[in-house]
Amino acid sequence: xxxxxxxxxxxxxxxxxxxxxxxxxxxxxxxxxxxxxxxxxxxxxxxxxxxxxxxxxxxxxxxxxxxxxxxxxxxxxxxxxxxxxxxxxxxxxxxxxxxxxxxxxxxxxxxxxxxxxxxxxxxxxxxxxxxxxxxxxxxxxxxxxxxxxxxxxxxxxxxxxxxxxxxxxxxxxxxxxxxxxxxxxxxxxxxxxxxxxxxxxxxxxxxxxxxxxxxxxxxxxxxxxxxxxxxxxxxxxxxxxxxxxxxxxxxxxxxxxxxxxxxxxxxxxxxxxxxxxx
Length: 278
Prior knowledge:
By secondary structure, the chain is an alpha/beta fold. It is 28% helix and 29% strand.
């Protein structure tokens, strides 16, 4: 639970869907579950997912990257904001910033980061499958592969439709993911991250369903104990995500390989898709 002071700054819209049903989802063992609602996952693996180095990188991106340069005073939503790495740099540029996330623990960390920086940011606890704020934003960001979480492809499309509805005319959505083309270059090689307390995290990725989905196993090793969590998400090529944007009603859909607006090619490390509302 958040403290009284935090509750003043973190508002909850709509009832969060119950994911604690002991009966499960009825899916197969290797099917995506509602893993993203497990607060323990985010707490345990946050030091590896959201390291201090990544925070410094994000701050530099927001200051310098062409795709993150918005008109003064723009209303910017960070959809799936996590611990708020983008929130403070965006607020420091003078934008009106909102962060939405389902995780109470991540929202608490985001609030703490904003308070330390004196950043005026609104935080909302909500599921991106349900969240809309009609015409409420000029820009929506969805970064760090925070798209494709849902078992039903129609739900992932609905997230894009919700974003379109939440944008003012002429607004834009940017989605940043690990594209199929990028992932193909290094899939299968486990990655290890050493943490300051002496523990370490191992990440192993496995492609499923003929490159339709990705399974990522995170293992935290601390002393003689290990804790493993599994993340499932859909994989998209540039063409597939482009077409999904079009199906959701976006216009002027563009594909980039970085936040500087560079081309998406064999040198790219990220897939960034931008669409606009008419």
